[in-house]
Amino acid sequence: MANDPHTFFAGQRVTIARSWKALMGRKPLFLYSALFDLLFLFLAGLTNLVLVKKLTGIMYIIGGLLSKASLDVGAGGAPSFFGLLSAAQAWGVVAQFVVLFIVWVLGLYFLYCLFHGMGWRLAYDMIGRQQPLLPFVKRFFRINISWYLLFVLLNAVLFIVSYLTTSIAKKTEVSVHRLWYVPFLLLLYVALVSYTRLEETRATGKDALRLAWTGKTRLFPTYLLILLLFAVIDIILLGVSYLGQIPLVIAGFLLFIPAFTVARVYWLGWSAPEMHKKYK
Amino acid sequence: MNEPLKTKLFIGGSILLVVGLLLLVLFVDVLFPVQQGDTSAPLGVERGRANVSTDVSAPVVIVEFSDFQCPFCRKALPTLKQIKAVYGDDVAFVYKHFPLASIHPLAMRAAEASECARDQGKFWQYHDLLFENQGAFQDDKLVSYAEELGMDTRMFKDCLASGAKRLIIQRDFQEGLDQGLQGTPIFFINGRRLEGAQPYSEFKRIIDEELTKHGK
Questions:
Q1: CATH: 3.30.9.10, 3.40.30.10, 3.20.20.70, 1.10.443.10. Which one for B60-213?
Q2: Interface contact B25-A47, CB threshold 8 A
Q3: What does the angle CA B36 – CA B37 – CA B41 come to, to the nearest 5 degrees?
Q4: Which tens digits make up the pLDDT trace of A15-36?
C-alpha cells in the first residue's frame, strides 16, 4: 500500500490538514517551540562563530610554530611530529586547542539536545501525545549520542578531504563536491526516524535504523518533502537577499524559524506508530 | 528524589550550563590567550636587498611571502610577471621566505639555495628556475640549476653546505608570523594584504589605486 501513490497522497493530505489543525490549535506551544529554535540558532551560531575562529587561529599558530621549529632543526634530520612539538614548545598551545575543541563539540551537542529536545517534546504535545519533560529529554540526549558521533566523524572526514584538496587560495578553488553532503542527509533521515520513537522508554538507534530501512518507501518521500520545504525557503530568502539585509533577516525569522516546528509536527503526524498501522 | 524537583534541577542546571557556555564564548580570548602575531608590525622592506627586483622607492612595492614548494605560489608567478611587464619600474617586488617546512620538507633547502644564488646576483633567475622545477630540490638538482645559470658552482656548493643563509630565512619567517600569516602566497601591496593566487584583475585594482595616490 505504501507504494500506492494514491494512498500516499491521500495520507499526505490528511497529515497536512491534521498538522495545520495541531499548529493553529496550540499557538502558544508553536510560539515556545519557535522560541527554542531561535535560541538554538543564536547560541549555536555564536558558539560556532567564535570557537571555530579561535580554533582555526590556534591551528595556524601550531602550524607556524612547527614550521619554525623545522627551520631551527634544519637539515640535521627529520624529527618526529611530537619531537617537533617539543622543539616548538607548542604543547601549551596544543593543550588549549584540545580543551577548546572538546568544549566546542560538547557545547554544540548540549545546545542541540536541549533546545531541539524541547522542540520535539512540544511537537509531541501539539499532536496530542504529551510526554513527561525529564524522561523525554533524557531519551533525546541518549538517542543523539550515536547520531552526533557519526556527525562529528563525517565532518572530520570532510575536513580532511577539503584540507588535502585546497590551499590558501581557497577563495578561488572549490574542492568539496556536493555529493559529500549525501551522507549528512542520510544521517539526518535516520535521526528524524529515531525521533518518532521517543515515546518508547527503550528507544534505540538500532531500531531507528531498522525502521528507516523497512519504512523507506513510506518515510523517505516525506523526508524529501520536508527537505523541499527548506529548499523553497532557501530560494525565497535568496530572492529577498537582493532587497537588503534587514528584509532578509525579517524574512529569515518569519519563514525559517517556524518551519522547524511545522516540519516536526508534520513528520510526527506522518510517522507516528499508529499512523504506520493506519496506512499499512 | 521526586519528579518535580528533578525537573526543576534539570531546568536550573541547563540554564547554568547555557550561561556558562555563553560566558566562555564571550570571554574566550581572556580565558585562552594565545598570541596571534602582532599584525600591526611594519613590514621590513630593506633598501638594497638583493631579492628586490627594482628600487624599493618605486611608488608601489609588492612584498610576497612565498614558499618554493607551494603550488599556489607557482600559480601566482605568471600574474606577477604580467604585472612586471605592464607596470615596469612603477612596481617593485620583494620576495620574503615563508617555507612551510612542516608540509613542504624541501622548501627550506630551496630557500637557502636561492639566497646563495643572491650572492652571485642571480636571485630572480634562480627563483624562476625553482618554480619551473618545483619539488626537484635535492642538493644535486639545486647545484645543477646554479650551473645552468652560469654561476660559480664551487662557491654555490660551499654556501649551501655552510647553512649560512638559514638565518635570513628564519628572520623572514618570523616577520611573516608577526604579520599573522597562515599560509602562502600572501602579498602586501604597499601594505595592503592580498591572500592567495588571485587573478591579475585583483592586483591591478589595488596597484592602480596606489598609483593614483602617488599621482600616477
A1: 3.40.30.10
A2: yes
A3: 150
A4: 888 888 888 888 899 999 999 9
The answer to whether the CB of A172 falls within 8 A of the CB of B197 is yes
In the numeric block, which cell numbers belong to residue A25? 490549535
Chain B CB contacts of A62 below 8 Å: none
CB-nearest to B28 from A50, A64, A172 is: A50
Contact B87, A55 (CB under 8 A): no
Strand boundaries in chain A, DSSP class E? none
d(CA A148, CA A112): 10
Is B170–A68 a contact, with Cβ atoms under 8 angstroms apart?
A: yes
Say how far apart CA A141 and CA A144 lie, in whole Å: 5
For residue B60, the cross-strand partners are B91
Nearest one of A262, A249, A264 to A45, comparing CA atoms: A249
Whether pLDDT at A168 is above 80:
no
The residue ranges of DSSP E strands in B7-66, in sequence order, are 60-66
Q: What single letter denotes the amino acid at residue B149?
A: L
Distance separating alpha carbons of residues A117 and A33, to the nearest angstrom = 10
Complex ipTM: 0.74
Cell numbers that stand for A42 in this block: 543564536
Q: What is the mean pLDDT of residues B90-106?
A: 86
DSSP per residue, A230-270: HHHHHHHHHHHHTT-HHHHHHHHHHHHHHHHHHHHHHHHHH
pLDDT band at B59 (very low <50, low <70, confident <90, very high): confident
The C-alpha cell that represents A164 in the structure block: 588535502
Q: Is A221 on the interface with B (CB under 8 A)?
A: no
Long-range contact set of residues A96-105: C-beta below 8 Å, sequence gap at least 24: A96/A58, A96/B32, A96/B34, A97/A55, A97/A58, A97/A59, A97/A62, A99/B32, A100/A51, A100/A54, A100/A55, A100/A58, A100/B28, A100/B32, A101/A55, A103/A51, A103/B21, A103/B24, A104/A47, A104/A48, A104/A51, A104/A52, A104/A55, A105/A152
